[in-house]
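Hi all, a correction to my earlier message: I attached the wrong file for ABC transporter ATP-binding protein. Here's the right sequence:
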Amino acid sequence: MSFLEISGLTKHYGPVAALAGIDLSAASGSRTAIVGPSGCGKTTLLRLIAGFEAPDQGRVVLDGQVLANGGHAVPAHRRGIGLVAQDGALFPHLSIADNIGFGMARGEDQRPERIAELAYTVGLDKAILKRRPHQLSGGQQQRVALARAMAMKPRLMLLDEPFSALDTGLRASMRKAVAELLEAAGITTILVTHDQAEALSFASQVAVMRDGKFSQVGTPRELYLQPKDRMVAEFLGDAIILPAKVSGGFATSSLGRIAVDSKERRDIARIMLRPEQVQVNRTSREGMSGPPGTIFAEVTDSEFAGSMCTIAVRLLNNPDPPDAAAIGNTPLILRKPGIDTPAVGEIVRLTVSGKAHVFA
Ligand SMILES: Nc1ncnc2c1ncn2[C@@H]1O[C@H](COP(=O)(O)OP(=O)(O)OP(=O)(O)O)[C@@H](O)[C@H]1O
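and the right structure:
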């Protein structure tokens, strides 16, 4: 049995099925990220694990201890679980130092030193320890909430969008620092986030949730490169999805002959590539020659966004797609380094690298 075992968890609010049968296992010390559209049940799941609400049905078992079994539940304060809520939920009447030290014993050895150390770890200046929560920015408050949860040395840490109020640079460095801190302390963690890159980089296990259920659970690479369906694929990033004729480990599609991740499949199927698998080189109408199978396209839209640009292209030579009507004139959306952004009307040569994923 894993450190955390959740099985058959359901929760209704009136007619709304917030959770419709959740199963999840997490190994001791692991990090799991839960992603999904707004309202799919992510916060409800964390609240049930934390013990703020009881499930209608299902079990939550932590380290062999049954925390919830249907309506029978261990109270939240006896679970040894830390929850960092979306809004931080700090105690407004306490100083920042006392907020961080809230769960520490009053007489705990080196209490001030530990508070200062935790504040430092989450990137907070010592000078703010005397302030009250309302004197801090939203991002600073989130970091205090994290430090407070860490101070309690929980068995399980639940993080509900803890980095959402931070700007991009700080968000990435905080994510790394918090991951390292949790790793060093060996604390099993579940992170809820809207940010796909955050989920894929923070966790060793990712669960994509929709309508109160998990659509797919797996490693970040599995979910990104071998998503179960279009919804999972598109939730974790941009995807190029094409009809193709699949046989012997290859697919014939509008992007030519591409290696696929299934040797056994032999049918008409949908294949998926990530945009970064398609290399885009600028050329000209005069330069449109190359070995058979070379794919050329015309840029129909171009958007510069700093380090990368996003372009839409219309394929100019279609090597017999099996289902041309399904492609129609839908442009492909691709990316390339922003420093080399092509203009609308330019001709580009496309080269696919790696394998395409065949959908079931
Ligand atoms: N206390 C409640 N009473 C009634 N309905 C609720 C309650 N809490 C949640 N819901 C409903 O349950 C569903 C799941 O809500 P939940 O907050 O878990 O979603 P979420 O995935 O965390 O959303 P977000 O990403 O927007 O925070 C929603 O339809 C929501 O409106």
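Sorry for the mix-up. Residues 321-328 have pLDDT under 50 and may be disordered.
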